[in-house]
Amino acid sequence: MSTEPILTVEHLTKNFTVRSSKGLRSVTRTVQAVSDVSFQISRGETLGLVGESGSGKTTVGRCVLQLIQPTGGSVVFQGRELVGMPANELRLLRREMQIVFQDPYASLDPRRTVFDAVAEPLEIQKVSGDHAARVAELLELVGLAPDHARRFPHEFSGGQRQRIGVARALALNPSLIVLDEPVSALDVSIQAGVVNLLEDLQEQRGLSYLFIAHDLSVVRHISDVVAVMYLGKLMEIGPADEVYNSPSHPYTQALLSAIPEPDPVTERQRQRILLQGDVPSPINPPSGCRFRTRCPIAQPVCAEEEPVLVDRGQGHPVACHFAQAVPVTVAAR
Amino acid sequence: MSREVVLSLRDLRVTFGTLLGNVQAVRGVDLDVHAGEIVGVVGESGSGKSVTFLGMMGLLPRSARVEGSATVRGAQMVGASVNEMRAIRGKRVAMIFQDPLSALNPTHRIGKQIVEMIREHQDMSGDAAMRRAIELLDLVGIPQPDQRARQYPHEFSGGMRQRVMIAMAIANDPEVLIADEPTTALDVTVQAQILEVMQRIQRELGTAIVLITHDLGVVARVADRVQVMYAGRTVERGSVDDVFAGSTHPYTRGLMASLPGTARERLVPIPGSPPNMLRPPAGCAFAPRCEFAVDRCAQGEPPVLVPLGSSESACIRAVELYSEVAR
Q1: What are A179-204's pLDDT values in tens digits?
Q2: What is residue B307's three-state secondary structure?
Q3: Looking at this predicted complex, what is its ipTM?
Q4: How far is the alpha carbon of A41 from chain B, nearest alpha carbon, in Å?
């Protein structure tokens, strides 16, 4: 692991206010989408951020890029604090950090050509030079043909559109890319090609990725470090192999045991931790540990005292009073 | 398998008339579902896996033409009159979908919606039907079912709504339950709960289940047999153990190889994309993407399923490619 972090996020918090009606009165309430999240990404590395819907993982990604203003905390990118940075400075730094969205159908304007889409960041940042040549080069880089530049998004499949999204993100030679569920909308046979592309680009260009996804097997494949979120909080963070092979937080354990493996023999033999109920509302999260309402090993102390995210002898930080590494027995494929 | 066949599809075809021509979404699907088993129907987007069953249930728009045969213990569904269909749909064959919210009426209480479903097919008093509805909610694992029955769909979470849909689907003891991507919109921990409920239904009520999914892991977890579809046709079928241990079709093998495993090996995608179903290619539709394709693969009629070992494969080279399976 290289030592120099390209991104350092500390105590990141984001609250959203929501209006709801209580009888005839309108009341505002606060949703704690992200609460006290800290992590680092080293140059050339991938941090996989996993969690179920409502865990706040997408909000973290948007706060990192300052697409939404964090309520509190700090985001230091290449040694500079982004929170509170003036807009003109931030715009210049945006060259260095880009995003790829989940939906390859919604993230491209249907009335503009591929050239327009990929060249747009160059125009916004007033980059001089031959844009046509640059776009052709980028399209080739992501495995498309240079003459695809004249076509419109509807002429492409989902996988090809996602490649266009990657080409656009690469246009300004960024050093960090936030990938927000980049392959979730794709069929597995297509998804594999896009994952390979992302890995190749990272190797060639030394890119750092914040890879946000709910698909745990893709995250395991691509990530160096994995962070597990639940209801706006980090539950566990550590090297991918450690987290997957010996998860120490009961939530991580349940999550991993819930993924169906494509092997009927393993599936029949597996011991599964079946969580009860659903994720509680982030408007009024449980006291103490946020996972305690569904936790199979919760004790009274869990409701009173919030477990801090520290190394409890597992080799990596875990936010559980009763953290204990449990080896996962999944047959290697 | 010696058990009785409850649902049988023969040469089922679905064609959509469009301005550009006819889209041949389903091009001759055969399927037998036996009493009390779970059959996984697997395929990627556009493979025709959902359209096959929507067509059978008469749930497609008028631009769709459904041909062939689909019978539930002899009762024909293709071309059935409105009245005949009403006696089958919801009574003998029920279906649940990916998005339970759009399948529930937001203005009626959950209990009332289940009662309506019961009284549509059974001669039962309102009170008795409500008691049955509460029983069903309990069966699918909804806590405090008597209170929950008085609530509206928006008061339920995604996983709970899917449980409600399952309760409605089994309200009239159907012989077959068609589940179309029932867990795709759900988080993985909730998916595990719903799969558990479906397995319980199969075990305790003996309902046969057709599980339509793109997720090979889900099939491996719950299904007894699997049928793999590509470009509107079945390319392989067999028991889950046989197919997962030694598939007999390059497409199925390609799908499995493209899944990320526990090792950090480079993934192997399937090159190219699925064919345009306005003009499906001659011969095997997978040939243009297949690493083992030879000239004769792309000629003549699409290949049919032939037995290989204990599975069936629609690959004309299956015997030479997978001789180890045949032995």
Answers
A1: 999 998 889 989 999 999 999 999 99
A2: strand
A3: 0.88
A4: 20
